[in-house]
Amino acid sequence: MTIAVTGATGQLGRLVVETLKTKAAPEGLIALARNPDKAADLGVPVRAFDYDAPETLAASLGGVETLLLISGSEVGRRVPQHAAVIEAAKEAGVKHIVYTSLLNAPNSTLGLALEHVETEKLLAASGIGHTVLRNGWYTENYTMGLPAALEHNALIGAAGDGRISSATRQDYADAAAAVLLDTGLQGKTYELSGDDSYTLTDLAATLSAQAGRDIPYVDMPEPDYAAALTSAGLPAELAGLLAHCDVEASKGALFDDGTQLSTLIGRPTTPLASAVATAIG
């Protein structure tokens, strides 16, 4: 079986390729990347694959049986990009597509959800066998801000007391690899989230314990949090998106008490304390 991974130079895609390499022969894997030069170190065949160049996609999928379609990073552009990939997969004779969607996408209040729902509809109408991995929040979405929290002696956010059932990118990469390699796991929709949930106050307490000093959580109004993220160097659109997601988290949008992720990967999801330790070195 030939497996191809889109977005292979991205944070999730690279982990999926590296995980697959430990379980399957590299010659059976293909890395698809907008800039193939950035994938040269992956140690597998690489093909150019630009979501915004639809006329080139089918040729890059030649001989591919199973495709991991990692959702595009350009919010607002995902539906046409994903539609182009799905059409190219049909033309190339791809037999199965695995897609990274969003936790509880049809009922989610996150602004990110709509494009995932539309993509799931495109897959259902495509006639191609498909599996949907509805990934929950990445723990790294929060732990990437911990060095700044240490520097400023405060962890900021807008999630209130909302509980967050996140997992690390490696957890989600392991789940994707499991589904790509086992046809018995395909053809389903999985709601994927961490085994345990936490509040941002809990995250601050975990950080404090590891740092040996008190780092409090400071809850902020959505506009103030977005402005703080922008001043820290994030693009305004991304800052606004993260602030919105935090507010929705305060209402339960990032919480899930299922265990489908740990069941898929055959181990508990990565504990919060381990993810914090990795983030602060």
Summarize the structure.
The chain has 281 residues and is of the alpha/beta class. Helix content is 42%, strand content 14%.
What can you tell me about this protein's structure?
This protein has 12 helices and 9 strands. It has 281 residues and is an alpha/beta fold. The protein has 2 domains: 133 residues, NAD(P)-binding Rossmann-like Domain (Rossmann fold, 3-Layer(aba) Sandwich); 112 residues, UDP-galactose 4-epimerase, domain 1 (Alpha-Beta Complex), CATH 3.90.25.10. Strand 5, helix 4 and strand 6 form a beta-alpha-beta unit. The protein is globular and about 55 Å long. The chain starts with a strand and ends with a helix.
Tags for this model:
single chain, alpha/beta, Rossmann fold, UDP-galactose 4-epimerase, domain 1, 2 domains, two-stranded parallel ribbon, 12 helices, NmrA-type_oxidoreductase, NAD(P)-bd_dom_sf, NAD(P)H-binding protein, NAD(P)-bd_dom
Write the topology of this structure.
Elements: E1 3-5, H1 11-21, E2 29-33, E3 46-48, H2 57-60, E4 66-69, H3 78-92, E5 96-102, H4 113-126, E6 129-135, H5 140-143, H6 146-152, E7 155-157, H7 169-181, E8 189-192, H8 200-211, E9 217-219, H9 222-231, H10 236-249, H11 260-265, H12 272-280
Parallel strand pairs: 1-2, 1-4, 2-3, 4-5, 5-6, 6-8, 7-9
Helix pairs in contact: 1-7, 3-4, 8-12, 9-10
Shape: globular
* Sheet/helix structural class: alpha/beta
Share of helix, binned? 40-55%
User: What is the architecture of the largest domain at the second tier of CATH?
Assistant: 3-Layer(aba) Sandwich
What share of residues are in beta strands?
5-15%
Give the neighbour order of strands across the main sheet.
3-2-1-4-5-6-8
The radius of gyration computed from the alpha-carbon positions, rounded to a whole number of angstroms, is 19 Å
CATH fold descriptor of the largest domain: Rossmann fold
CATH class of the largest domain: Alpha Beta
By oligomeric state, this entry counts as single chain
SS elements, strand count: 9
- In N-to-C order, the SSE pattern is EHEEHEHEHEHHEHEHEHHHH
Described by strand count, sense and barrel closure, the largest sheet is:
7 strands, parallel
Question: Termini separation (Å)?
Answer: 39 Å
Contiguous low-pLDDT stretches (5 residues minimum) are: none
Number of helical elements: 12
CATH evolutionary superfamily of the largest domain: NAD(P)-binding Rossmann-like Domain
Task: Return the average pLDDT rounded to an integer.
Answer: 96
Q: Into how many domains do the coordinates divide?
A: 2
Pfam families: NAD_binding_10
Organism: Tritonibacter litoralis
Domain NAD(P)-binding: 7-182
Protein name: NAD(P)H-binding protein
